[in-house]
Every structure is written in C-alpha cells, then in structure tokens.
Design brief:
The protein is mainly α. The longest helix has 40 residues. A hairpin with a 5-residue loop joins strand 2 and strand 3. It is 47% helix and 8% strand.
C-alpha cells in the first residue's frame, strides 16, 4: 500500500504536466490545482527523493570519482550558457527579445492606442486571430494583444471569455457600447466594481481606460478586507522596525552590563 502511494505521488508531476484539451479542463476545474499558473513547479515533489539519494550516496560511496563530477559541472555550466544565449532563445522559441528590449532602452515604445492580434492567413485566404506567444511584444507598437498569453486562462487560453473581444481603436465602442479592452478590476474585485470577470470597459469609462493605459491612478474599488490588510501592513512595518531596534538596544545594553560585571573587582 505504501509503495503504491509513493508511486502515485511520483507520477503526479508527470500527470499534471500532460496536456490535452479535455485533461486541461479537468485540471482547471480542480480546486487549488486549477489556480496554478505553472505546473512545472509540481516537479519539486522529486526534491525529497533526490535528497535521500544524495544522502545515501554520501554515506555509502567511499571513493569519489572526479570524472563524472567534472562532466556534470561542465554540462550544467554549458546548459546555463545556452539558456542565456540570445541566439538559442531566438532559435528555440522563435522569439527575439530585442523586439522588446531595444524600444525600451531607446524610449521608442508607444502608448497603447488600439487592441490588436496576430493574424494567420490560411491557404484559402481566410484570416483569423491566433494565440502566439512570440507576438506578445505588440505593446511596444501601441497595440494591446487581444490573445496575449496568460496561464490563468489555460495554456491555450481555453477559459478566456472571448465575448465582445475584437480588434480596433480603444476609444471606439461597439453596438453594445463596449470598448475593446477588458476591465482588469473585474477579474480581481468583481463584486466591489459591480461587474463580472472578463467584462469590458464601457463607453462611459473611457477616461478610466485612458488612465490605465497611461499607468495612472486607475479608480478601481477594492474589498474591505484588502483595505484592512493594507492598514495592518502599514502599521506592522514601523512596529517591526521599532521592535528590532529595541531588541538590538536591549542586547547591547545587556552585553555592556555583563562586561561591566566581569570587570568589577571581586
């Protein structure tokens, strides 16, 4: 029974990182697991096993073989070199980081003025937006990617609410009076902002949207609990610093008294 349970635990990370649309739907509907944005973290389950193997090796292997250790060190160093290589990053992922880094360093990035999306043209000439992470740099050209990769919606954006999602200038509303950009406060505090998760800005909220894209003070409401926790955090910081300084002062004072007692004649 114990062996079977151990085997299931060791298989868990592999199962969680398998992808099919139906299996992904099951995972996203599972409490706790569905809130994870990166299932690769579940491979940490193997760390205790690796620690046990390392401990057993340290205790039972009496002769150290330098060649495997040297080869492992070279392999790890080479892996890190290639991971951080701009050439490999571009070849392996099809993404050139210079598309973002260069405009940022030169100050050539533009303010968001429209919602866009990468378009794929099929053989019959049909054009449709696609999910493509190598187009997430569109914002430097002033475009907010309508299908920007976000793990909380699934690896293929399966749970993204695509109602009213469209491309176009951010200040032009559709026939329903909705602007093309979604309101982020509706994802975080839907009740306080009287909207559903995934709701768009409406035409009357254009000023709020312009504040958001200009990185201004976006007037979104938060929960009462958030306000209380902000207050607690604001009070806890100076109290913690004061307590630390007080503790250091008491330690120094006690040390001074002990030194004085040691030096006193007996």
């Amino acid at each position: 029974m114990r062996t079977a349970a151990t085997g299931l635990i060791l298989l868990l990370p592999i199962a969680l990182n398998l992808y099919t649309p139906s299996w992904n739907a099951v995972l996203k509907a599972t409490p706790v697991v569905g809130d994870s944005s990166n299932m690769l973290r579940w491979f940490l389950v193997y760390l205790p096993a690796l620690c046990l193997v390392a401990g057993w090796t340290w205790r039972h292997v009496t002769k150290v073989y330098l060649s495997p250790l040297l080869a492992l060190s070279i392999a790890l160093a080479g892996q890190q070199y290639f991971i951080h290589s701009a050439f490999l990053a571009h070849e392996a992922n099809g993404y050139d980081r210079a598309l973002v880094v260069d405009p940022w360093q030169s100050g050539r990035s533009k303010n968001i003025f429209a919602v866009g999306a990468p378009i794929k043209t099929s053989k019959d000439g049909t054009r449709q937006p696609v999910v493509a992470s190598n187009f997430d740099h569109m914002f430097v050209d002033g475009l907010s990617n309508a299908l920007c990769y976000e793990p909380m919606f699934g690896y293929r954006l399966e749970t993204l609410d695509r109602r009213h999602l469209r491309v176009g200038a951010i200040n032009i509303s559709d026939q329903n009076g909705l602007l093309p950009m979604k309101n982020p406060s509706c994802y975080v505090y839907p009740d306080e902002n009287t909207c559903r998760p995934g709701a768009h800005f409406n035409a009357s909220q254009l000023n709020d949207l312009q504040l958001l894209i200009a990185y201004g003070d976006f007037p979104a409401k938060t929960s009462a609990l958030r306000s209380v926790l902000n207050l607690v955090a604001g009070v806890a910081f100076p109290v913690t610093i004061t307590a630390m300084l007080g503790g250091l002062w008491r330690m120094r004072r006690r040390q001074s008294l002990d030194d004085a007692n040691d030096e006193a004649p007996r």
